[in-house]
Write a structure and sequence with these properties.
Length: 364
Amino acid sequence: MPRGPAGSSRGPTPKGASVRGFGFSEHGGLDRLSFVEVPEPEPGTDEVRIRVHAAGFNRLDRFTLGGIPGVTVDLPHVLGSDGAGTVDRVGDQGHDLRVGERVLLNPGIWDGTCEACRAHQEALCRNYRIVGEHTQGTATEFAVVPRRNVRPLPGRLSFAEGAAVPLVFETAWRALKTVGEVRAGDRVAIVGAGGGVATAAVQVAKLLGASVAVVSRSPDKGERALALGADAFLPIDDDHPLDRVLWQWTEKKGVDLVFDSVGGPTLARSVRATARGGRVVVIGATAGPTVDLDIRTLFWRQASIRGSTMAGPTEFDEVLSHLADGRLRPVVDSVVPFERAAEALKRFDAPDLFGKIVVSLLPG
């Protein structure tokens, strides 16, 4: 029978004990969402068990629910990549953490042994996994992750705000700073305004010294993006497509970097909006994974399309330092009680969505 270390807030876990989580028992649409029972997780030697106070949802959860080609999950499956809470139990190598300490988790898991990890390029790990996609998620009482994935929750943040941070901010930070190589004075366009990654990207690009335009069909979201620090809101419609409005914004010079999470419907126009030597960084494909692209624009402008996913531990710590100092701040669209978690996943379809959706499991 598993036994918790000295100082654990709970006694030994009974054999066969389970916990309640929110997720699904078979892939499909929103009608497949349900509360499920999964084995209560126990921390291994170098792992930490977190009592989850708040869990954050991402569009990734919707894709996981539907089934991602090439990704197999254990069923039933608990959703949620982001989580903040308190240390509940530690393995034999986690004793620098105190039971009850306020923490959040990095949802990106790397093996630490491959060539990329040894070169401190953990985001390129061949065995990289994401909590809630490849492993059981955070929308449950306990989440177990490696000790190196646990960080103190910045004192200025609530648990709900902490659960709104990890995936979107580390994604935006790596995409813009590491992969996109944004420099002070660059012209950066953010395609889309309401998602959690977009709200993080606006702040990160401004912190890096860029001039930032947000492109969206929603005037309300555009105004809210301006309040976050964007320099311009560029409305688009069928008569005013993305590439045309960006070309006008830059006085026909083109954009140094386009941050595109939409995919199929926008990528070709994002490429056409680039300056000479410009970059399009793709971090998702929320509206479709395939695109018809005229590659002549790429070689004539010496532009590039770069892919970026998640981040490594150094990048994650950089994000947390800026959050602790107040230079970055989480944007929370809504906080939903755990018992109404299905509403949280459905809210991704709401036209007024702006920021992260969080479910609250415990007060705080």
